[in-house]
Specification:
- Helix content is 33%, strand content 22%.
- The chain contains 18 helices and 23 strands.
- The strands form four sheets. It has an eight-stranded parallel β-barrel with strand order 1-2-3-4-5-6-7-8, surrounded by six helices. The protein has a six-stranded mixed beta sheet with strand order 11-10-12-13-15-14, with helices on both faces. It has a five-stranded antiparallel beta sheet with strand order 9-17-18-23-20.
- It is globular, with a radius of gyration of 25 Å.
Length: 568
């Protein structure tokens, strides 16, 4: 009898652990353990057990044990102990390496104390030797986001020759990855797999050698930085909550099926923005989330508990969006293109802001043939064929939204008679020889605003676009969203994500966001909160004839079923 009672209690306990809110899905939670933390948290049986319990509480199923960071390397015996302990307790283990300069390791950049001079023989020798060592311990290694350089030493300048620094570094880093990372590791472990993790500052990748075309060919998988953090402070730049989404979708357009994971951290985060990093990662398509780093997990950072309470929502969202067709305005950024130039163009990171406005951008490195709506900023002007494509698109009925900086760089009188951008309204329709062109008068940043003694990578100052009035924002939304037969109104700083039969709203405000969703351009549609997504209180929805009024909780998402009928 007692045995039966205990059996029932165990079943009830198991059921509680795997409640509907925490139903297992394809979404995988992972953690990164820095080289110093390997020593700190895995050197004794007690500390290892403590870390294991934290991982189990959070639902971590995979970790990355780092073998090098800034010259610090845990002992090989300790790495083996930690690896085997975690694997014995059901956690998958891979390696991690951060290629930062350290005492007697590599040759530092002459401009930045973290980065290396990859042209220098010592850097090449030290990293090749370390990757051989790590490949004996792991069958998969993630390279953290310092595989870039700003070195301008005499050695690098001589190797650069007549090329620009960007051209030189793009080739340098691709060659280095092949010759001094991948090939040495495969000499000792032919089955080794490599992940390159990109940071989130996509609009400045090419300046420092991040090669978005070569990386998917060289590495087995691509990971994406979605660590946007707090949008209102300078510490990590005034980064929009949408930057991780933009970065992931744009890299997905070059990496294809090799992209799978997102990585975000606790730096400068309150619980709301921290959770939004996870939502944006899943909205972008990530099926694996790396939580950086283990110390914050073990010390129970204030963001952990709210995150754990919404794990079920993240899993439900991942399941709902998997393989669902995306709809939206294709935002074109060619690989290695510039959002800024010497003539005053300032469109760096503009894609983050059109996403925060709710203008449904789908960042792409190539224009798809079936694009119905296209966004062209200064970056697109680096494509020598863009004027031809633009005119053809207008004649075919493609809705095209351009910035004045794009049009002035193009300098094609048949497309625009814009002579003074300051005289333009925020949003206008311009007559051209090929058809009507929509102009979004928005400037962001120039390369000159970034420097080693300032902010090097992320938005360096807040922009007034975040304070645009709701009436203006909704006017722009209406024009763009009508492409897909829907109209969505609400406050500024609400992201909108369209799928074949779903609409997701993301509220980037500190207060609730009242929104309205309704059909447009004929046809009928009904809207309701999706019943399989556990909405956070006080998210509510009231539906009427072809419309839905919805209130989205602060720093939360709402998933709406979009049930469309064809017009009579």
């Amino acid at each position: 009898m007692l045995r039966n009672v205990l059996h029932v209690l165990l079943l009830l306990f198991a059921a509680a652990l795997f409640s509907a809110a925490d139903t297992p899905s394809n979404l995988q939670l992972e953690a990164y353990i820095t080289a110093h933390q390997v020593d700190q948290y895995f050197s004794t049986p007690e500390s290892r057990l403590k870390a294991l319990r934290v991982y189990q509480d959070i639902g971590i199923s995979k970790v990355y044990l780092e073998t090098h960071r800034s010259g610090h390397q845990p002992g090989e015996a300790l790495l083996r102990e930690a690896r085997d302990f975690l694997r014995a307790n059901g956690i998958e283990v891979s390696g991690g390496i951060t290629t930062t300069a350290g005492e007697n390791f590599g040759e530092p950049s002459d401009r930045n104390r973290y980065w290396l001079n990859y042209q220098h023989p010592k850097t090449q020798t030290d990293l090749a030797a370390h990757f051989r060592k790590a490949a004996r311990l792991f069958d998969e290694i993630m390279v953290d986001d310092f595989l870039a350089t700003d070195d301008e030493s005499d050695l690098s300048a001589a190797a650069k020759g007549e090329r620009s620094w960007s051209e030189y570094r793009l080739q340098l880093m691709a060659d280095f990855a092949r010759r001094f990372i991948i090939e040495p590791a495969r000499e000792v472990n032919p089955d080794i797999q490599f992940i390159e993790k990109f940071p989130q500052w996509y609009d400045r990748f090419h300046i420092f050698g991040y090669n978005v075309l070569e990386a998917p060919r060289l590495f087995d998988r691509i990971w994406v930085g979605t660590e946007t953090r707090n949008p209102n402070t300078l510490r990590f730049g005034y980064t929009m909550p949408t930057e991780g989404y933009v970065n992931y979708r744009w890299l997905a357009s070059t990496a294809g099926e090799k992209i799978a994971g997102a990585w975000f951290d606790f730096g400068d985060c309150a619980p709301g923005p921290y959770l939004m990093q996870a939502y944006q990662s899943v909205l972008a398509g990530a099926q694996e989330l790396v939580l950086f780093e283990t110390g914050s997990l073990i010390d129970h950072n204030e963001c952990i508990e709210p995150f754990m309470q919404r794990r079920g929502a993240l899993r439900a969202l991942a399941e709902l969006l998997k393989d669902r067709p995306r709809l939206g305005m294709h935002a074109y950024k060619p690989p290695n293109s510039n959002g800024s130039d010497a003539d005053g163009a300032a469109n760096l990171y503009i894609f983050d802001y059109i996403a925060t406005l709710g203008l449904v951008p789908l960042p792409v490195a190539n224009i798809p043939d079936d694009a119905k709506c296209l966004f062209l900023a200064r970056q697109a002007a680096d494509d020598p064929e863009i004027a031809v494509q633009l005119k053809a698109g207008l004649k075919q009925g493609v809705k095209i939204v351009a910035t004045p900086d794009f049009l002035q760089t193009l300098n094609d009188s048949s497309l625009s008679n814009i002579s003074e951008r300051n005289a333009l309204p925020i949003f206008s329709k311009q007559k051209t020889d090929a058809g009507d062109l929509l102009v979004l008068n928005l400037q962001t940043f120039r390369h000159e605003e970034f420097a080693p003694d300032k902010e090097m990578f992320l938005p360096p100052r807040p922009l007034p676009v975040r304070d645009w009035p709701a009436e203006e924002v909704n006017r722009i939304r209406k024009e763009i969203l009508s492409t897909w037969g829907v109209e969505i109104s609400g406050p500024n700083n609400v992201g909108i994500y369209l799928f074949d039969d779903l609409i997701v709203l993301a509220n980037f405000n500190d207060e609730e966001a009242p929104c309205e969703v309704k059909s447009s351009q004929g046809g009928k549609a009904s809207f309701r909160l999706n019943p399989s997504f556990p909405h956070a209180a006080p998210t509510i929805c009231s539906s009427g004839a072809g419309a839905c009024r919805i209130t989205v909780a602060a720093w939360e998402t709402a998933v709406i079923d979009w049930i469309r009928e064809q017009p009579d």
